[in-house]
Amino acid sequence: MINRRDFIKNLGLTGAALTAPCAVINASPVISEKPGVANITLKGRIHHNGSGIAGVAVTDGMNITLSDKSGNYTLLSNKAAEFVYISVPAGYAFPHQKGIADFYKKIDSSKSTYNADFRLEKLETDDRKHNFVVWADPQMISKKDAEVLVTQAAPDLKQLVSNYPAGSLFHAIGCGDLVWDHFELIEDYKKAVDISGIPFFNLIGNHDMDLDARTDDYSARTFKDNYGPTYYSFNRGNVHYICLDDVFFIGTAKRYIGYLTENQLQWLEQDLANVKHGSTLVVSLHIPTFTGVQRRNKLKEEEIGGVVANREQLYKLLAPYNVHFMSGHTHMNEKWEKDNMIEHVHGTVCGAWWTGPICTDGTPEGYAVYEVNGDQISWYYKSTGKPREYQLKVYEKGRLKTAPDAIVANVWNWDPKWKVEWYQDGVLKGAMEQRVDFDPWAVELYEGPAMPKKHKFVDPTLTDHLFFATPDANAKNIKVVTTDRFGNTYSQELAV
């Protein structure tokens, strides 16, 4: 992710569960008509210790079939397909290699038939209760960045997991920009994932693409070599998880748009055919489907590299479900909610590109933690190196030029169902005033004389999650108390 100003300049642009087993989802498989591309039959068995597992979705990225009662599957494909892979069913552990999810097989297209078996392990724990985290934009550009990820962020996640009861189920979503164009750092990312101790499902970001590719179709070569398919699904408990590739490379270095291809949307239609209406979905993609950037900055047009251009088509497909979108890319934290959907746009593991301890909106570098119980999901933001209770920062008067007489509270994981109240000398004064503005510390770090020299493009960004109150001249003590949508309270006191 680059910042808005430089992105526009460089781009030159404006403006769950499974249902009962059935046969092949699409009765007319997509077969390539390209000259020289021959058909191939994919077949194999999904099993646990030799016992077949029925109803497991198997795909080549174009069509989907379900394993039969003996765990066998057959899928007519073509030699343009790169992988055969499964949607891991609920009740089974996630296969992984040192933390990198391993749910796919690379197709050997030298023969007319490719056999691929998948062995799964049953969980000993009821997975209807589980947890997951989202790491957005580790985005390392140097070994120095990688060292911080490996020695600070990864151990922080490992410690977080250990704080939960023994046997608690955890997985993670690496939400794109896993590195910053420097593919030699992929091994450092994998090392950090391994240290964390939990399996990671990874997404491609705009900085994970092969920039010498002639089209989007070939821009994910390195990603696929290291992480497998760029879009797929899996299940845990009652929740169906979908991971998508919404970064569309337009054929020249570092130029891209937020866009979902027709191949993905057709695949998604088939995938959703196996999911009961009303189910909870977690849909992860690097570029947010939508943000408040255009509104906050009063732009005439959306940033085409900042949101998904054809998101309305995605929303239509997801209308029968309860949807949580997980995204990153912006290096700031925000949420929007409408009808059956809520989007969690995540602050980043790297903060403002490893230049300081906070993102450009004042959100601390860190990650989000989600706790799932049946169909319900609750969440909080975990700042790296800070306790779970660290959920706001209160600034004294004079820290923000636009409000010199006000105290300012940054409540980075805020959404409209939170309450933000303040006390003056022990007396409740009521709700604080929400405004769009810049975080005071972000201004000092990234705009003022202390601005770091490492990445000069870093700017503070406008945010919705700032709250203001003006104390009396003789006030001695201020306390800000926040209550999230789940009833958890957090507070900070400030002497004035």
Descriptive labels:
alpha+beta, five-stranded mixed sheet, six-stranded mixed sheet, 496 residues, single chain
Q: Could you give the distance between the termini?
A: 38 Å
Which class best fits the helix and strand makeup?
alpha+beta
Q: How confident is the prediction overall: mean pLDDT?
A: 92
How are the strands of the largest sheet arranged?
15-16-19-20-22-21
Task: Specify the number of helices.
Answer: 8
Question: What would a concise description of this structure say?
Answer:
This protein has eight helices and 32 strands. With 496 residues, the chain is of the alpha+beta class.
Task: Give a verbal description of the structure.
The protein has 496 residues and is an alpha+beta fold. Helix 2 runs parallel beside helix 3. The chain has a six-stranded mixed β-sheet, with no helix packed on it. Strands 1, 2, 5, 10 and 11 form a five-stranded mixed β-sheet that branches. A five-stranded mixed β-sheet has the order 14-13-12-23-24, with no helix packed on it. Mean pLDDT is 92; it is low at 1-35. The longest helix has 20 residues, at 143-162. It has eight helices and 32 strands.
